[in-house]
Amino acid sequence: MSSQINRRYFFYGSVLAGAVPAAGFGSAPSLKMLGYKSPNEKLNIASIGAGGKAASDIQGCSSENIVALCDVDEKRAAAKFKEYDKAPKYKDYRKMLDEQAKNIDAVIVTTPDHMHATAAIAAMERGKHVYCQKPLTRTVWEARQMMDAANKYKVATQMGNQGYSNEGTRQVAEIVWSGEIGQVKEVHAWTDRPWWPQGQTEIPAAEDIPSTLDWDLWLGSAEKRPFTTGGKDFKSPYGGFYLPFNWRGFFDFGCGALGDMACHILGAPNMALKLGSPTSVECIKKEGASKFQFPKKSVTKFEFPARGTMGPVTVYWHDGMKESPKLDGVPADEWIGDLPQRAQGQRGQGQMQQRPIYNGMTGRVFNFEDYQSLKAATELRPASPNGSVFIGDKGALTTGTYGEQTRLLPTAKMADFRMPEPLLTRSPGHYRDWIRACKGGDPACSNFNVAAPFVEWMLLGVIALRVDGKLEWDAAKMRFSNSNEANQYLKPTLRKGFTINT
Q: Most CB contacts within 10 A, which of 79, 180, 187, 235?
């Protein structure tokens, strides 16, 4: 690795010893696994989930053979069921895994958060590679079980945080490691989520279950409860009270805005700062508390200790934002996070154009000339309030939702700035990364050895939204040292038939 590091990287010294994995981006070596396929041989992939986000995950893996589909809601899954009309269809993933085991190499798990671990571990126990949507799991204990299972059964894995495959995310890490902004003392990350209802205080009356939905299977490991759409007085652009999307705001099913967006937006800080485990977490502001849902808006503070030659750092997560935050150390007139877009109809010369990136995502690699043109535009669509800022003792750095448009602050510094030479391997594409790993190639960039520790510290913030005060975290013992109330949320209570073998 020493031949790859020029003198700019001396700043962080020993912390770079683990920055460039010997066998790709994962923390486990490449394995020629049972059922190994050559790169030219297609995988046989089944999907647990076929509607909603699952549809795009299936599409992302459509270069391979989609051989079986499962969804508890046949109406929601109808389009994919029709597209893959010859593939066997199921409502119960357990039945699919039993009956189709010999025909399946790998499994996509795209369900509500509370069913991720149960379904994914069932697949891994059968020797199937797994792609699991973010936030990987709903609880810390499940995250550790997911990592352990992946290592035990020697399967290829990937969490669905696409930004980890993005060029800009790697650029953030390489700029930080070069010492360009000095020691990073503080990170702020923010999102405009939740878009769905949170902070509700009443559960509407029960209603009949639609004939196309298996409500009991949808609940899965969660405690039984009556079905409801919310009735005629419930208003949401995302469907009924629970389905198809509003489940994300409920303690029992989702992880709120943290679960939806932190795996994306906090990806760059996690990679660049090699964060590991925090020593404490605290919700320092919240609005709209509820006994069964996450709040409408919140700010959560994570304190991380020194890591090698990297000093202590405090990470702040802001959700429910209407605009990007105003931060000390960042000029008030600077755009931070996602950049605005030209108003519709203003196309042509000077518009920010799509730039090629390694993983083929729709995010843009930063280009200073296009940025200047954007600044000069008379009509702009405001940026979505999503992104992150790194504040160092020598400068600041910002990036967008998925690590796109990474740039120094003030942005004028980018006029003559040269990006550091690449240290990190680049992704061939988020889904392709996983598919390659399934065929015996390098571990995917967000394999469970990488994803589970990242998700674990994020999930501590989910708990802090439910338990007031500063929570002191002991990662080695997997417990909060000062709150038994918080400790009860580290591990789920799983309903019979949906337990996890340990």
A: 187
